[in-house]
Structure formats: structure tokens, C-alpha cells
Amino acid sequence: MLWFLLAVALSYFFIIPDNFLLFCPLYKTTGIQCPGCGSQRAFHQLLHGNLMGALQQNLLLVLGIIALVYHYGIKAVNRWFGKNFKSVFSHRNALWWGIGLAILFMIVRNLSWYPLNP
To answer: Using 50, 70 and 90 to split pLDDT, how confident is the model at 102?
Structure first.
């Protein structure tokens, strides 16, 4: 956990997205944006408290972080208070739904509509 916090702190203070972050090989070779394109810039925006900037860079990353916080929050409540709440992400098909959502996001993102295609 300490290494994770150290990595977040280092990325907050020392990474400038314009000249440091990696490029997407799929986008560079084909021009197609994958579901992860813009996630590094979106994470950088979130670290600096710019939620709207993060949503503009990669909506799927922000929704994924919210889903992870919800899921592990339910697990923490269950462990700490002895409850038995079920997370919607505990379902056996949740992984397939997530993969399908990522594929759908990729398809919609590569259409020429403004909100998802920056």
C-alpha cells in the first residue's frame, strides 16, 4: 500500500502529461482509440482535482474508478461490521459485462460524435 501511495505522490508532483506520458500503440498505428486511450491524462486530471477534465479525457476510467471504490467499499463494510451486502460486481458475469462495456465504449468513441471523441 505504501508503494502505491508513493507512486501516486510521484505522479502528482513530477509527471507532466504533455512530455512524459506514453502513447497508445493502437492509436499510433491505426488511428483507432482503444478504451484506455486518454486514461493516463484522465488519471492526471483526477489527481489535480479536475473531474470534468478527467471525464473529457476518458469517461470509462472515471466510471471504472467509481465502480472499484463502490465494490471495495462494500467489501470493507462487510468485513468491518460483519454485514453481508452484495456488490453488483460480485456476480459471476460481471467480468463479461465489463468487457462488453469496454468494447461498446471503444466503438462509440471512434464514431465522429463530439462528446466521446475529443
So the answer is: very high
pTM over 0.85: no
Q: C-alpha cell of 91?
A: 456476480
Ordered by start, the domain boundaries in the chain are 33-118
Please list, residue by residue across 82-116, b when 16 or more beta carbons sit within 10 angstroms of its beta carbon and e when fewer do: eeeeebebeeeeeeeeeeeeeeebbeebbeeeeeb
- CA dihedral (95, 98, 100, 102) in degrees, to 10, reads -140
The residue whose grid cell reads 502528482 is: 12
- Between CA 4 and CA 34 the distance in angstroms is 25
Q: How confident is the model over 6-28, as a mean pLDDT?
A: 72
